[in-house]
Every structure is written in structure tokens, then in C-alpha cells.
Design brief:
The two termini are 17 Å apart. The chain is an alpha+beta fold. The chain is globular and about 60 Å long. The protein contains ten helices and 23 strands. About 14% of the residues have low confidence. The strands form seven sheets. Strands 1, 4, 13, 14, 15, 16, 22 and 23 form an eight-stranded antiparallel sheet that branches. A three-stranded antiparallel sheet has the order 6-9-10, covered by helices on one side. 46% of the residues are buried. The longest helix has 24 residues.
């Protein structure tokens, strides 16, 4: 989800596994490097099943110790096992596909040397430092949980990329995506599930649009759609987004934003200043132009949207990552998790609040606030039990059986307990695009944990 600066606080907008199991479980992004200790991730790891390729090898003629017709012993055939392959559409929880708890690792790269510290050798020594490796090992459980959430995101989004067709209702697209992710992550209230509503903002709407009940909006063949959704395990959030279109006239716009995101990820690392990331993003993004229907547009960074740090159950953990030069000289730190996201536009390159609100989130720091209305108290209990401080939308309240809650929701917003996040829009008639990945600044390396074969 997206971050925004100097306007109003806003949210930050596998390959399929087929074939037989080899020595290691198949991965989507890179080889898994976890250990076999799965305690504490999710109890159902222990109950995941593996199908045997041949359960009766020990009982068939020719097994070791049984003579053949010539009286010679044959060697026992190795019992081959295979990992369950994901179905299409996906229906097997990811945790059951990796019963040893070694979920796919993201793309691993060295930390860069910060732009203003070119003589510092610290970054180059991190991968081989025994001290850094020891600190890395201490966070193994955290990494496993976030990798599980990342694999759910990969499998869900890659299925949706095959599934979405022109003319589909946006509600249908969002509910299909969300139900798929809920199945793959084994949704369990605050322990595992969706981290925020599915953003499916179209054209000049850059972020924070998801349809409310009764919204008739359709994804047409000429639209540009930003699909931004999150998954989490025990509050460890994957925030990852891509842009989807059916017309190749937008290719350069998408390429500009995708490559700008990669530039931001490449620049990011321990001790790197946030302003240096914004400069790298802008340099790449604004080197592009796109021709649409005979008219050429420069691609502009949407300068009041940004990336952000992430903490457990907190999508915005305090640091913002600009996508234009200037900004804070605050540095990234070891152990932090960041969403590196960029937005490009053929319009003004500035967004404002517009349209009907669908996104809401309880204030992370809010204390006890007295409530007079019983309806407000009841709705707050539902929010606390199902979302906590994670973002939610009106469709999700409908799904939980809530009705006639708008007055109570407004009361919670008026009292500062819950905040509303309206859609963020550039000028009508323009087109916007978004790409985003979640990265972990591990002591030894930088892990692009949500990276996949699609982007």
C-alpha cells in the first residue's frame, strides 16, 4: 500500500509447482535456506502431508533381500516422494506444500555501499562476517513467517494474472483474489490472513480504491489497473503491487515504473540515506516517455506518494522512502523491513483525496477512548478481533455479517480511533502505474522477499 507525504496520512497504496519433488522443495524466487526448525510458525506445519510415489516398495518382489528368478538379490528401490503440486485454481495452503517449513527465499543481494560512504568496507564484509551471520540466524523464525506470506502473495498474484479478463467486475476480481489468498494462507483472524484490502485503482486513480458493495465498476480493455494487496503471518506483512493492462500502448509507462522500483531496491540497504533512494528512483522514472493514442507524455514520479518501513501489525512503521530527490537524510537500519514502491503518472505527478472511501485502519497508537454509542462499541470489538491495527474495508465488514454500521464507523473516525483513507487521484484523463516489493535488511544481505518470476 502506498505512503503519502505532506497531504493527509495514507496507507501505502512460482512459478507453479508441478512435477516431482527433488532433493529440495521447488522454490519460486530462489533456493530456500531455512533450517528444519518449524516450531512457532504455524502449528499446522507439523500436519502437512507428503504423498508417497510408491507406498508399497518394501512389499513388492525385487526389494532388497528377496531373490529373483536366478536366485540373485536385487537392490531395494529408493522410495520416491513428491511434493504436492499446487492446483489450478490454487486450493492447497502454501504451508502444506513446504512441510519442512523451508519456504522459498527471496532474491539475495549484497548491501550496497552508501553513496556518501564510498570508502567504507562494511557492506562488502557483511556476507562473510561471523558476527553478522550469528545475528542473522537469530531472526530465522521471523524470516520464515514473512517468506510464507510472500509465497502466498506470489502464488495468488500469478494466478490472478492468468485469471483476469477484460469486462470483469472489479468486485469479482477483488473477491476472487482475496478468497484465493485466504485459502493459501489458512486465514485465522490476527494470526494469518490479508494485511489490507485489495487495491485495484484504475487509470488516474493511483491508490486506495477497492469497490464497496454495489459498485458496478468494470475492468475494461483500455484501463490501467494497479493491483496492490498484502498478506501476513503473525503481523509480518508482505506489501507488494503490480500494474495490469490489456493494451501494449501502456508498456513504456509500466516499464518506467517497474525499472524505477528496481532502481530504488538496488540503492536501498543498511546505512543508506532515504533521500538517495528517491534520487535514484526519479532519475530512472523520468528518463521515460510514453506515446498513447498519438500523444507523447513524459512519465512523472507522483511526488507525494512514497514507500515506507513496515513493522509487525503496522503497515507504516515511521520511515518514508521518497520517490523524488530531496527529502530526509535519515538512514535505513539493520533488521528493518521496507516496502519499496514507486508510482508514475502521465498527469501532474501529484495526487489528492477523491471519490468514495473504502479503506479504513485503526490508529496504531490510539489509547482508550470513551464511546457512548453501543453500536460504536460493538463495531470496535469486531475491528479489534478481526483486523487489529491492520487495514480493512467495508466489504470485509459486510463479509463478517455487519450491517448498518456506517454511523458507528463515522463515530470511530470522528473520535480518532479509526482513520479513513480515501482514494488518491491525479487529474482525470491521465494514467498512473505502480510497482512495489518488500525487502528485509538482514545483517548479512538484502533479501527481496516478495520477488517472483513475474516481476
Amino acid at each position: 500500500m502506498s505512503g503519502e507525504t505532506k497531504v493527509e496520512p495514507v496507507l501505502t497504496a512460482e512459478k507453479e509447482m508441478n512435477g516431482k519433488k527433488k532433493k529440495k522443495p521447488p522454490t519460486t524466487a530462489a533456493e530456500s535456506n531455512g533450517t528444519n526448525d518449524t516450531d512457532g510458525i504455524i502449528k499446522s506445519v507439523e500436519n502437512a502431508k507428503i504423498d508417497d510415489d510408491d507406498d508399497d516398495d518394501d512389499n513388492v518382489a525385487g526389494a532388497e533381500g528377496e531373490p529373483d528368478a536366478a536366485g540373485k538379490k536385487k537392490k531395494k528401490r529408493n522410495r520416491k516422494k513428491k511434493v504436492k503440486a499446487q492446483t489450478d485454481p490454487p486450493s492447497i495452503p502454501v504451508i502444506d506444500l513446504f512441510p519442512d517449513g523451508n519456504f522459498p527465499t527471496g532474491e539475495i543481494v549484497e548491501h550496497p555501499t552508501p553513496k556518501d560512504m564510498l570508502n567504507d568496507q562494511t557492506a562488502k564484509n557483511r556476507m562473510t562476517s561471523a558476527e553478522k551471520k550469528a545475528r542473522d540466524a537469530m531472526s530465522d523464525m521471523e524470516y520464515r513467517e514473512i517468506r510464507l506470506a510472500a509465497e502466498v502473495h506470489r502464488q495468488t498474484r500469478q494466478y490472478m494474472q492468468r485469471y483476469i479478463k477484460p469486462g470483469m467486475d472489479m468486485i469479482h476480481i477483488c473477491e476472487t483474489l482475496e478468497n484465493t489468498a485466504r485459502t493459501l494462507i489458512k486465514e485465522n483472524k490476527l494470526e494469518a490472513g490479508l494485511a489490507f484490502p485489495t487495491g485495484c485503482s484504475l487509470n488516474h486513480v493511483a491508490a486506495h480504491y477497492t469497490p464497496n458493495a454495489g459498485d458496478p465498476t468494470v475492468f475494461n480493455a483500455q484501463d490501467v489497473c494497479k493491483i496492490d494487496f498484502g498478506t501476513h503471518i503473525n503481523g509480518r506483512i508482505i506489501d507488494c503491487a503490480f500494474t495490469w493492462t490489456f493494451d501494449n500502448k501502456y508498456d513504456k509507462l509500466l516499464e518506467a515504473v517497474r525499472e524505477a522500483t528496481y532502481a530504488g531496491i538496488k540503492t536501498a540497504g543498511i546505512d543508506v540515506r532515504l533521500c538517495d533512494i528517491g534520487e535514484a528512483v526519479q532519475e530512472v522514472m523520468e528518463s521515460y516517455e510514453v506515446e498513447i493514442d498519438g500523444k507523447t507524455y513524459p512519465v512523472k514520479c507522483i511526488r507525494n506518494l512514497n514507500g515506507h518501513s513496515i513493522a509487525p501489525y503496522r503497515i507504516h512503521a515511521g520511515k518514508t522512502v521518497p520517490i523524488v530527490k530531496g527529502g530526509e537524510h535519515t538512514r535505513m537500519e539493520e533488521g528493518e523491513v521496507f516496502a519499496i514502491e514507486t508510482f508514475g503518472s502521465t498527469g501532474r505527478g501529484m495526487v489528492h483525496n477523491d471519490l468514495e472511501v473504502s479503506h479504513y485502519m485503526k490508529d496504531f497508537d490510539v489509547g482508550h477512548v470513551p464511546l457512548r454509542l453501543n453500536s460504536s462499541k460493538q463495531l470496535l470489538r469486531v475491528i479489534d478481533e478481526n483486523f487489529g491495527t491492520l487495514a480493512f474495508c467495508r466489504r470485509w465488514l459486510d463479509r463478517l455479517g455487519q450491517s448498518r454500521y456506517l454511523a458507528a464507523l463515522k463515530d470511530l473516525c470522528d473520535k480518532g480511533i479509526v482513520e479513513a483513507y480515501p482514494p488518491l487521484c491525479d487529474i482525470k484523463g491521465c494514467y498512473t502505474a505502480q510497482y512495489e516489493h518488500t525487502i528485509i535488511l538482514r545483517p548479512t544481505c538484502k533479501e527481496i522477499v516478495s520477488k517472483g518470476l513475474d516481476y
